[in-house]
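HUMAN: Would you supply a protein with fold tokens?

ASSISTANT:
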Amino acid sequence: MTACLADLETIATAYVRQVRTLTGYANSVVSDDDLHQTARTTLRLLFEMIKGEDRLAELQEYSENIGRRRARQQVPLESLLRAVRMDFPFIWEALSAHTAGGASAISDSVVWIWNAVERHTTNVQTGYLDEISRVNAELELERNFLLRQLLSEGSRDPQLHRQAAAALGLPADGEFVVVVSGDQSSTPTNSHGRSPTAPLGHRYYSSKVSSSPSSPQTRCNLRQRGFCSTSRLGSRLPRAASPR
């Protein structure tokens, strides 16, 4: 085990070369230095655990941080998990090379080593999914705020229109259908005297929006039109709208 720890630089370098062949890593923003340092630290912790040292809590924290970082770097989860599971063959090869009797001498430890790598993999995945959830929650809050501002009757700020378009991934000018889920206890009626919330608790709105300050459509002119409407801002909206 001491020999394996002494050989970490070589093992980590070989690992990085192999990871770069995976889809999602070949042209990713993850640098070689990042990959090398991550591999070196992870392998060290795993080797020390195999040696009998208590590194469980440290490995869990480090593994989850890897997942969060890779999520921010937009590495696909499938590619990330494949890269993480590659720790096992590198550990096994190193142990076999530095153990008298080779692989057969450590065959009784294969399940334990695999479980250690799988624990690491699970922690990486947990960190990744937690980060994705956090980012999505922040984006959802931002989108909801901008959408409420955009659909307010008093919205005249072209900068708001441009900001909303960017946050929602829409062109500044276009058409879309907005579906607003309302409180069932609130029962506004449309021009036909029918409550738009009665069937499904949804209201549909129409507005025309332009990012041009000189345009007569700069004002978000909100009109309730029963169950179907169009609006100029973009061709799609996440969740709350569908293309016309």
